[in-house]
Amino acid sequence: MTELTTPIAPAAARVSLLRRLLRNPVGVVSLAFLAIVGLVAVIGSALAPYDPNLASLQLVLAPPSPDHILGADSAGRDVLSRLLAATQISIAAALLGLVVALVVGVTAGLIAGYYGGWFDQVSSWFTGLVMALPGIVVLLAARAVVGPSVWYSMLIFGVLLSPAYFRLVYAAVTAVKNELYVDAARVSGLSDLRIIARHILSVVRAPVIIQSAIIAGIAIAIQSGLEFLGLGDMSVPTWGSMLNDGFSNIYKAPLLMLWPSLAIGLTCMALVLLANAMRDELERSVRPVGRRRRRAAAVVAEERPAVVVHADDAKTRTGEVLLSVRDLVVGYDKPDGSLTRVVRGVSLDIRRGEVHGLIGESGSGKTQTAFAVLGLLPAGGRVVSGSIGFDGLELAGAGEKVYRGVRGSRIAYVPQEPMSNLDGAFTIGSQLVEPMRLTLGISKAEAKERALGLLERVGIPNPKRTFAAYPHEISGGMAQRVLIAGAVSCDPELLIADEPTTALDVTVQAEVLDLVRDLQEERQMGLLLVTHNFGVVADLCDRVSVMQSGLIVETGPVRSIFAHAEHPYTQSLLDAILEDGPARGALAGTPEVAR
Amino acid sequence: MLQFILRRLLSGVVLVFVITVVAFSLLYAGGGDIARRILGQNATQDIVDRKAAELGLTRPLWEQYGDWFSHAVTGDFGRSWFTGQLVMNGVSSRLAVTLSIVIGATLLAAIVSVFLGVLAAVRGGAVDRVVQVGSVLGFAIPGFLIALGLVIVFAINLKWFKATGYIPITTSFAGWLTSVTLPIIALSIGVIATVAQQVRGSVIDALERDYVRTLRSRGLSMRRVVAKHVLRNAGGPALAVLAVQFVGLLSGAVIVEQIFALPGLGQMAVQATSSADIPIVMGLVTVMAVIVVIVNLAIDLAQAALNPKVRLS
Amino acid sequence: MTTLLEVKDLDVTYPVKGFGKKPFQALRGVSLDIRPGETVGLVGESGSGKTTLGRAVLGLAPVTGGSIEYRGRDIAHLGRRERRALSSEIQVVFQDPYSSLNPALTIEQILSEPLTARGVAGSQARTRVRELLGQVNLPADAGDRLPREFSGGQRQRIAIARALALDPQLIVCDEPVSALDLSTQARVLDLFIEIQERTGVAYLFISHDLAVVRHISHRVAVMYHGEIVESGDGDQVTGAPEHPYTQRLFMAAPVPDPVRQEQRRAERLRLLEQQREADEQALATASPGRTA
C-alpha cells in the first residue's frame, strides 16, 4: 500500500489547560490574585485583629492609625477586620449562586439538548421566562417576601443565572449530537450515559469552566450591588454593605469606599481576565486544525522539476493571449514570520475564447492560483513573486485602483458552492442589479431589465419570480445558474470558474456544463476552469494543466494529455479513474434474482 | 410578516401572563405572615388577623389573583398598603425617568459598539487589540463601581454634572441632559463592552463568508461590501445580544438610580421592598415584564427586517 | 443462499418542526435485500433518500411503515437496549472523515470504544486495536495520535477499522469515498474489496457516483425521490440501464476522454429529446382533451 509511505504528521504536543494557563502572564496574575482572595476567604476571619461587629463610639469614621490600619467605619468598627470577614461571606455567597446555577443549568442543558422532546420545550420556555426578568427586580421581590438573607437571595440568583449555563450547554450538546461520531458511537453499541460522558461532557467542559469564571464575577457584582442598596442583613459584613456605608459618608471619609471597591473590582476583573486567558489558550490549541488549506504544500525544497509540455495540435486555438501568468508564487505569512508557499512558480497562458483547465487534487494550489489572478486571496495570502499579465495590465500585487477596472467588468468569477456565495439577506435580483449599476453605470431599471434577460438566458424558468426571491427559496442548481448569470452580467473577457459543478448533482452538473459551454462560445470568453474532475475537463477544455503541490507538472492540448500523458503524476491520476473500469459482476454462487 | 408579528405578540402576552401568575403566587403565598410583617412583632394576633382580612389576604390565592388580574388589565394595579396611593400613578410618574436612562443607554451602546466592533474587525492589528482590551475591562468592572467612579470624578471633584436628582425633559432639555448623562454612560459601558465584542466577532465571521469574495469579484469595493452586506448580516447576532443586555440594563438602572438619586422605577422598587409593600412590587414586576416584551418585540422586528430567514422561523 | 438483510416496503417520515407543517416522507415503499458477503450499491442524487435508507438500517431514522429484517428478525422498531446488542452485527462507515471521528480522542480510544462497550478488557482491547490498524494498513503506533494528525484517506481507514472492531456481518457505507481525492479514493475502495474477500462481510454501499458503485457492487439499486426505480446486476444497471431516470443519470456523468465525451454529450441530448417526446405523448394519451 502506497499510503503506508505517506508519513503521518508528527505528534502534536498535548498540554493541559492549567499548564498552558501558567505560561500565560495574564492567566498567572489572575490565578494568583484569586488564590489570595480564596485564602483570605478561608482564614481571613482568624487573621482579623478585632471582632468585625465590635462598635466603638470613639472610633466613628476614624482615619487610618497604627491600631486600625484602615481606620473605622460610621459605626466605629475596624475596617480591616470587616474587610477580612466580608471576604468570606461575599465569596461564599457568590459560590452558592454559582453552584446552584451550574447544577441547574448544566443538568437541564444536557438533558434538554440530548433527549429533546417535552423537557426541551419546557426548559427552553422556562429559560425565556427567566431571561425576560431583570435579575435585581426579582431579587428585590424575593427579598420583600423572605426578608434580608444573603443566602436566600443567592439561591434565587443561582436559578436566575442558570440560563447562562443552560444555553451554553444546550447549544454545545445539540451541535455535538448531530456529529457523525456520536452516530458512530451509537451504532458501536454505547449506552446514552456513556455517550454523554465520553463525547458530550468533554466538549462542554472547557466552555463551562470559562463561563463559571464569568458567572462568579457576575454573582459577586450582583450580590455586592444588592447589599450596596442597603437591602442586605446589616449584621453580616459584606463588601457591598461596606460600600454602602462608604457611599453614605463619601464627603466625610472618602477612603472608606476605596477598600470594598478595590476588593469587588479586582476580584471581578481577575475572574474575567482568567476566563479570557483560558479562552485564548483553548483557541490557540484549536486553531492549527483548520479544515481548509489542511494540506497546504509545505515542501521547502526549491528545485523545480521540468514541466512536461505537449505540442499544440490542429485543434488548439491560436490568437491573442489574454492572460499570461509567469512564475507565480503565492504564500501565506505564518505567525512565526516564515512563509508557506502554496503556489510555487506557476506559468500558464489563456487566449481569447480558450478554455484552460487547471486540474489537481486538494491542496495542489489550483484554487489559490485562481484567487491570485482575481486579486482576492484570503487574509494573510499574497503574491510573493512572478507576474500576472492581463491584456497589457500587470495584476500581480496590483492595488484596488487597478482591479477596480478589471474585476466584474473584464474578469469574472464563478464559485464552487452555490448557496454560500449568495448573500441570504438580499434578494437575488438586488445582488444582480447592484454590481451592474456600479460597473456599467446604468440605471436601476436598465439593470433590472438586463438581469431578467440574463436569468432567462441561463435557463431559469420564471425569471421574474427568481428575481424577487431570496437565495434560500431556490435550489442549488438554480443558485449556480444565478451565479453564472451574475458573472457574465458585465460581459467579461475572462471567466474564472472554481469547481463550478462540484457541489451539484450529476444531472444538474451536465446541464450547467452545457450552459457554461454555450455562454463561453457565444461570448468568446477566455475560461480558466479549476477542477479535480477529468470528466469535466474532457467535456469543456481546449487545454489543460495538471497541478501537484503548487506546481504545474504537465500541460498541453486536452486530447494529447488524455491520449499520452507523460508525467508519472498525471498517469497515476488517470489510472485512478474508475469510469472505464469493468463492473464487479454478480456475487459468485448466487443465482440472478430479479426483483 | 403580519403572521410573524402576531405570533411574537401572542407569545409575549402569554409570557407576561405567566410571569404575573408566578410572581403573584410567590408574593402572596405568605398569607397571614404578610400582615404580621407589616404590623411588626408586637401586634396582637387579633389585629394581625383583622389586617389580613382587610387586605383580602384570607381569601384563596386564585381568587385574589383573579381579582388582581381583572383590575390589572384595565391598568389598575391596586393601592400601596402604606400610602394608599394608586400603584399606577406612582409607576407612570417614574416611568419616564427609568426609560430615559435605559433607552438612552441602549441607543448609545448600540451606536458606539457597532462603530468599535466594525473598526476592530476591519482594521485588525493595534486598533483591534485596544478595542479587545477595552471591552474586557469594561465587561469586568461592575457597573455600579463605574457609576460611583463617575460620580466622584465628574460630579464631586470636577462638578461638571449634578451628582443627584432628575430634571424632566419637559422642564428643560439641557437640564434633562445634564441629569441623565452620567447615569447613561455608567449603564452603557458594560453593554458596549459586550455588544462590541459580539459585533466584532460577527463582522469577522461575515467577512469570511464566500459571498464577500463573489461580490468583490463583481467589482464591488470592500468598503461597499462591508457597509451593505457584512453589516446587515452581522446585525442579527448583535441585536440578539443587545436584547439580552437590555434586561440587564433594567437591573443596572435600579442601582444607578439609587446612586444618582433619580426618582425612577428602581428607586420605587427598593423602597417598596424594604417596607414589603407587595402591591407595588407586584405592579413593578408586571411593568418591567411588559417593557421587556415590548423591547424584545421591537428587536425581533428589526431582525426580521434584516434577515428574511428569521421571518420564517 | 439465505438473505442477510431484507427491507420490505419501507416508509420513513420525518416530522417537520413547526406547527401545522406537513411531515416529510423521505422513503416510500422501498424494498431491497442483501446476501452474506455481497455488496449492494445504492445510487442516487441528493435528496433521493439513499442516506435515509442507510440510517434506517442503522436504527437512526424513524421508520413509519414496512419492515427491516435482519436474519429473519424485524429490527425496524427495536428498543435502545436491543439495538445496542445488534452493534456486533451491523456497523457503519460515514462520508465525512472529519466529523466521524471525535477530535478530542486518540485513535486507540476511538477504536477501543465499541470493544469496551461490550466489556472487553483493556489489554485485550489494545491487542485488538493493533490488529485492526494492521488490517487497514496503518502503522501500529498510530493509536496514540489524534485524528487531526491524519489525512482524509487515513481517517477513513480509521473509520473502517472501527466498523470492523466487532466483526460485523454487514457494514453500511454512506458515501465513504466521496470526500477523498481521486487516487486516495481508488486505494480505499480496494481496501473495502480486500476486506470483504477476506472476512465475507456484506456492504450496503451508498454513493452518488455511478463509477464508484459500479466498481465495488455486485448488485446496484437506483433511488429517485424516495423510491427505488431500478435494481439488478451491477453490469446491467450501470451499463445498460432501463429506467428513464437511470438512463439520464448514466448519460450525465462526463467521460474522462475528450473524444468519447463529445459523443456521450450528443447521445445525452438525443436521449433527453426522446424522453421529452415520450412524456408529451404519454400526457397526450392520458388526457386527450387537454392538448390541442
The strands making up the biggest β-sheet of chain A line up spatially as: 1-11-10-4-9-8-7
CATH second-level architecture of the largest domain in chain A: 3-Layer(aba) Sandwich
Overall body shape of chain A: elongated
Low-confidence runs of chain A (pLDDT<50, min 5 residues)? 1-7, 287-301, 591-595
Largest interface: A-C, 75 and 97 residues
How many runs of DSSP E, i.e. beta strands of chain A? 11
Continuous helix count of chain A: 20
- What structural category characterises the helix and strand content of chain C? alpha/beta
Protein name (chain A): Dipeptide/oligopeptide/nickel ABC transporter permease/ATP-binding protein
InterPro entries (chain A): AAA+_ATPase, ABC_Ni/Peptide_Import, ABC_transporter-like_ATP-bd, ABC_transporter-like_CS, MetI-like, MetI-like_sf, OppC_N, P-loop_NTPase
Family (chain A): Belongs to the binding-protein-dependent transport system permease family.
Subcellular location (chain A): Cell membrane; Membrane
Short summary of the structure?
The complex is a heterotrimer of chains A (595), B (313) and C (292). Chain A is an alpha/beta fold.
Fold and architecture overview:
Chain C: InterPro entries: AAA+_ATPase, ABC_transp_ATP-bind, ABC_transporter-like_ATP-bd, ABC_transporter-like_CS, P-loop_NTPase. The complex is a heterotrimer of chains A (595), B (313) and C (292). Chain A has two domains: 190 residues, MetI-like (MetI-like fold); 256 residues, Rossmann fold (3-Layer(aba) Sandwich). Helices cover 52% and strands 12% of the residues of chain A. Chain A has 20 helices and eleven strands. In chain A, the strands form two sheets. In chain A, strands 1-11-10-4-9-8-7 form a seven-stranded mixed sheet, sandwiched between helices. The N terminus and C terminus of chain A are likely disordered. Chain B has 313 residues and is an all-alpha fold. Chain C folds into two domains: 172 residues, 3-Layer(aba) Sandwich (Rossmann fold); 68 residues, no CATH class. Chains in contact: A-B, A-C. At the A-C interface, helix 7, helix 8, helix 17, helix 18 and helix 19 of A face helix 2, strand 6, helix 3, helix 5 and helix 6 of C.
